[in-house]
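// run 5 | inverse folding | seed 20
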């Protein structure tokens, strides 16, 4: 096996070079709805923030939009019921989470150029307050710290050494720790890191440059883009009380309705794993008018397995080569995890 290639990547490359991938894309090798999810577009390789949020370069995103536009039926969320009720058909839906400014600057012009719709799930509190999200702030603190690691503590069960030069392993470990905390403890955890790392909290001006604004969002809506909810402050909902979840979901819907002129029916779960939502979440989403909710644990949707409040999405990330992207579209049953 060539150095640096996984078995999956080798399989994807073989599909391309043999011509089998092109042939299979013309055949009904699968049916249903494949929903692809992105976060950021561009080059985050030198960013002090969470580099894993970048999903694709501008050039790769253009390639990906061209590919789905040419070979598949690209749908919006209003088409989901129809698509899932079809006995035949391969449908693709494009989505973004959070509301980063590069969605407007880089992704939106490409989507317009290919006359392709997309769903953007917004964390409304970040747009309103222009704040630095917890994952980016933790990454910023690790990367700007002059220390060489963290000692074990009540927050960190094992010492963490800072892996140079990008410290990505340390960032991932600290984010993983955040995600398992009860929501009542996350603020104290971030304050602990700010003190232990000697950095203080991230400068507020970072948040000023991170997010789209409501005027940009309304412009996108006029051009056929669709918007949904992603909570107000992006907590892991299952780690909150029912009352706290109600505030997060209800405030998000209220702000979307106020700014966009109508309630939004679509919601994506922050973090999106199987443990990121619970029965309270489902009930509150229905109460606040969200008809469809989307996960982040891979796979693709089939009518026989459809759960409208746990619709699968597959992540597109920077390690996804063009060969691998084509393979995901061609054989999602092999190249997406669910």
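// decoded
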């Amino acid at each position: 096996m060539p150095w640096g290639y996984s078995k999956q990547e080798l399989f994807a490359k073989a599909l391309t070079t043999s011509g089998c991938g092109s042939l299979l894309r013309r055949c009904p090798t699968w049916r249903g709805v494949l929903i692809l999810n992105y976060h950021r577009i561009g080059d985050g390789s030198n960013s002090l923030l969470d580099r894993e949020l970048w999903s694709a370069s501008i050039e790769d995103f253009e390639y990906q939009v061209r590919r789905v536009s040419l070979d598949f039926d690209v749908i919006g969320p209003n088409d989901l019921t129809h698509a899932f009720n079809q006995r035949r058909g391969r449908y693709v839906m494009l989505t973004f989470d959070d509301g980063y400014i590069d969605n407007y600057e880089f992704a939106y012009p490409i989507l317009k150029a290919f006359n392709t719709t997309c769903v953007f799930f917004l964390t409304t509190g970040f747009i309103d307050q222009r704040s630095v999200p917890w994952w980016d702030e933790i990454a910023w603190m690790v990367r700007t710290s002059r220390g060489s690691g963290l000692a074990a503590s009540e927050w960190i069960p094992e010492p963490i050494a800072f892996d140079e030069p990008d410290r990505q392993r340390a960032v991932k470990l600290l984010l993983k720790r955040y995600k398992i905390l009860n929501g009542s403890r996350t603020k104290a955890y971030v304050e602990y890191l700010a003190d232990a790392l000697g950095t203080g909290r991230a400068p507020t001006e970072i948040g000023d440059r991170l997010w789209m604004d409501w005027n940009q969002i309304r412009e996108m809506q006029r051009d056929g883009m669709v918007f949904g909810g992603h909570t107000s402050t992006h907590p892991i909902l299952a780690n909150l009380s029912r009352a706290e979840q109600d505030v997060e979901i209800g405030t998000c819907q209220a702000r979307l309705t106020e700014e966009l002129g109508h309630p939004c029916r679509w919601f994506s779960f922050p973090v999106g794993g199987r443990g990121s939502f619970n029965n309270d979440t489902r009930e509150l989403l229905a109460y606040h008018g969200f008809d469809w909710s989307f996960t982040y644990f891979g796979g693709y949707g089939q009518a026989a397995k459809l759960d409208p409040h746990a619709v699968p999405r597959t992540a597109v990330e920077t390690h996804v080569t063009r060969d691998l992207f084509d393979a995901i579209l061609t054989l999602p049953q092999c190249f997406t995890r669910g």
